[in-house]
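Quick check before the chapter quiz. The format below is the same one you will see on the exam, so make sure you can read both the input and the output lines.
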Amino acid sequence: MEGSKIKIGKYGEGLASDFLIRQGARIIEKNYYTRYGEIDLIAFMGDEILFVEVKTRTGSGYGYPEQAINYFKVKHLYKAIDKYLDRKHLNNFWRLDGISVEVDRVQKTAKIRWFKDVGRNF
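Here is the expected output.
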């Protein structure tokens, strides 16, 4: 079961990455790890850096994927983002976005929603 969750998550991250590229983003990092957690995708959209948390679900048993981006997740992501910016010596404008991916295994489709600046709600 755990391996299946990881595969679903990686699949969703791939779909989210492709989606962002179609929107004009340039992906610069995937699965960037820090001691505070992982940043799923990091991209440039113009001069702005997008830090993207991707949540993927195949059913509604645990709610909508975006509901998993909560206060505690955002708090850890902000710390990870600070580490990334410091390590890369970047001072660009940036924001934390969320992408939810709902995969329908039967129809073999996915519904993707982009939530911009998710951290501002906390």
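If your answer matched, good. The CA atoms of residues 49 and 94 lie 4 Å apart.
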